[in-house]
């Protein structure tokens, strides 16, 4: 008889359910099966539920951020053993294609990239199958808790690579982060590693602006006012050296292009489901660099090292905790951050 488990299943735009599904099994020698110990919800999951990611088919188990315990490994897995506590990366890597060989794992051509909760079943479940397990998991030091480690599955490397590193933050820069949700806060936290002169957070929610200050922003600006006026005043009319988009809406992206100085850089981090206007009639002569990207997670080992050494404090990111069976309540809290104050919600098995 087929073994069953509980999982969050996508049933089409706006629909999800916590229900019985078959437990995963090894389907490739490079697979590992983990018991999901701690898991979280991402803003990308909300984009999927909004219909912004049409590749996700009904029946798919959601989720791409988890910490788990290895319970089975395929014959081709050499670096993991049953009982290992591991971080499941949001990006899977075949390790041999052209992109993987250059560290661009998010663009993997060999069946990897962002597949968990997207093209294959994800980790918002009691058990999960992790493809390419040797290259797509990280064994965790004993002094790193499950709750803090799960922040490295996606939001920390995404913010760091696609925002801070793509934006080329340098000492003395004026950096603006538009959107102070979890990704924006992670961008603020990791931008601080490069000693910017000013770090400005822009958001509409007062709770998130306060959180941004806690994570290192020295200026907080209500998006409903005039962020451009605030940035101009701060920089003597020049504009920001680096602006990061951490929302994923046309308005947020277009706002970013108004805040950047000539010769500056706009790093788009947000997931976009709608078109945004690129005002080249204003930008063409300003030497502005605009970058986009899907996280590659090449920075995860470095971030994990900093976390283990106490150099990154991500604990304040977690605002709500639930038991795994309370997934629908967790989604409800995460979907209404203005009312609930939710940043990251974590769910754990007993």
UniProtKB/TrEMBL annotation:
Pfam families: ADH_N, ADH_zinc_N. Keywords: Metal-binding, Oxidoreductase, Zinc. SMART domains: PKS_ER. InterPro entries: ADH-like_C, ADH-like_N, ADH_Zn_CS, ER, GroES-like_sf, NAD(P)-bd_dom_sf. Its cofactor is Zn(2+). It comes from the Bacteria. Residues 12-347 form the Enoyl reductase (ER) domain. Belongs to the zinc-containing alcohol dehydrogenase family. PANTHER family: NADP-DEPENDENT ISOPROPANOL DEHYDROGENASE, ZINC-TYPE ALCOHOL DEHYDROGENASE-LIKE. This is Alcohol dehydrogenase.
């Amino acid at each position: 008889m087929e073994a069953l488990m509980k999982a969050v299943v996508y049933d089409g735009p706006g629909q999800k359910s916590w229900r019985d599904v078959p437990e995963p099994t090894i389907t490739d020698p490079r697979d590992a099966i983990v018991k999901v110990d701690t898991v979280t919800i991402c803003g990308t999951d909300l984009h999927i539920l909004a219909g912004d990611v049409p590749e996700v088919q009904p029946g798919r188990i959601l989720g791409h951020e988890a910490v788990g315990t290895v319970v089975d490994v395929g014959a081709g897995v050499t670096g993991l053993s049953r009982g290992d506590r591991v971080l499941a990366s949001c990006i899977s890597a075949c390790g041999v294609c052209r992109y993987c060989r250059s560290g661009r794992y998010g663009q993997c051509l060999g069946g990897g990239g962002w597949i968990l909760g997207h093209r294959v079943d994800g980790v918002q479940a009691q058990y999960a199958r992790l493809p390419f397990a040797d290259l797509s998991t990280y064994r965790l030091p004993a002094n790193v808790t499950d709750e803090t480690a799960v922040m490295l599955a996606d939001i920390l490397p995404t913010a760091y690579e696609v925002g801070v590193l793509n934006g080329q933050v340098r000492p003395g820069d004026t950096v603006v982060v538009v959107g102070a949700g979890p990704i924006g806060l992670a961008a603020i936290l990791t931008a601080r590693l490069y000693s910017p002169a000013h770090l400005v957070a822009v958001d509409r929610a007062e709770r998130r602006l306060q959180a941004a200050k806690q994570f290192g922003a020295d200026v907080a600006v209500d998006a409903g006012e005039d962020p451009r006026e605030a940035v101009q005043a701060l920089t003597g009319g020049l504009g920001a050296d680096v602006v990061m988009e951490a929302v994923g809406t046309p308005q947020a992206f277009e706002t970013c292009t108004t805040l950047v100085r000539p010769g500056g850089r706009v790093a788009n981090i947000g997931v976009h489901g709608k078109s945004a206007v690129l005002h080249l009639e204003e930008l063409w002569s300003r030497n502005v660099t605009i970058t986009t990207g899907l996280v590659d997670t090449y920075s995860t080992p470095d971030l994990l090292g900093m976390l283990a050494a106490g150099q990154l404090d991500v604990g304040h990111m977690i605002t709500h905790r639930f038991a795994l069976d309370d997934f629908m309540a967790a989604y409800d809290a995460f979907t209404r951050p203005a009312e609930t104050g939710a940043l990251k919600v974590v769910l754990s098995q007993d």
